[in-house]
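Thread: LLP complex, take 2
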Amino acid sequence: MWWEKKGHLKVNDENHLSIADHDACALAGEYGTPVYVYNKQRIIDNFSAIRNAFRKHTDNFRIHYAMKANSNPEILRILHKQGAYIDAVSPYEAKLAIDSGFPAERIMFTGTSVSNTDLKMLVNDDIFINIDSMSQIKRLRKFAGKGLNVSLRWNPGMGAGHHGHTITAGKHIKFGIPESKLDLAVDEVISAGFNLVGLHQHIGSGWLAEDVPVFLDTVDKTIAAAVKIQDKIGHDLEFIDFGGGPGIPYSADDKEFPLDIYAKGICEKIASSTLKDAQIAIEPGRYIVGDAGVLLLEINTVEEKNVPIIGVDAGFNTLARPSFYGSYHEMIIGNHVLSKNTKEYMIAGNLCESGDVFNENRETLRKLPVPREGDILVILNAGAYGYSMASTYNSRPKPRELLVDEGKVKIIRDVEW
Ligand code: LLP
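Output below.
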């Protein structure tokens, strides 16, 4: 199958799915459903793949893990050991990263519509702030002394993402300082007495090979803007941050993300600019954890209503992406993965809403092996923006999370309300 990966996902001799050689159905039986299962080695391999792609060109880079993708403390600890930095979106994420072993100086906060309460917490915790608005610069003056190191997030005018909700640059976008205001923002930083050390962009989340050229155009624009800023402030910027966004294949039609083209593009553009000594920063989330996690559900209903229905024991409270973005997630029957006896189904969650289905939309049914009640449905590529977007809607608890670490299985978060 297109999603099989050595040492990670495979179809075993019993026609079951296994994850790092653990039978998914046995895990569901032992730990209950719904349950997220992550493969530690796959997380490490994904992180290493990004690091190796950059190392071919430079040593002057750092990888901020965008912990909004999955902030389980055990996963944070794994990535800390790998040498990651952190992209935090709230002061609470920053605190969680600190509690999971990251020193404050490895954490960068990039928020939007940031409150005074947030700013105070960040300053008290010595967290580096990447500023998103003029208002934020003005209000930060009240809580921070002169000489504070800061960077600016700007909007380079073009964005990309798997859905309109995940495009974060361009028109009608709330994030960052627009090109026309960048000069004013730099003046405001100077007048506040802050020390401007970096420029940041994040154009969106979940883009693949087709959008790499657009991304590289924004890299050019950001470098040009950074050069202008350096000329104005009279000293070099310490880093340029190109944000996150590299996507993963969610379906057989998606291609692997071209990491080499992406890393080479960034590194060569920096090397041929006057920013040669500026450190490159990136902020991937999905690429590191997305394909490392699966969600196991139990099928409790197989029935012909006005369409054939497979009912499962979780809904968009557990995995929001299909309902929220119409996202495609590959689904398989964990205890008979390969079968010629297939049929098209609506995969119905257990929440009290018609939109609570795991198909990418209600009208597009999914072809699956004909299941029996009690079988295990596995949703693939659920490691990023799965648990981290989960809620207790309908007063249902959030699911358990497991980490498989070669031969061992560990509960890394229990069922929570
Ligand atoms: N940096 C910043 C400033 C961001 O806003 C984000 C994502 C990232 C980095 C990481 O992006 P990644 O490498 O994971 O694509 N819930 C959506 C994704 C929202 C992403 C929000 N910001 C989803 O499920 O697709």
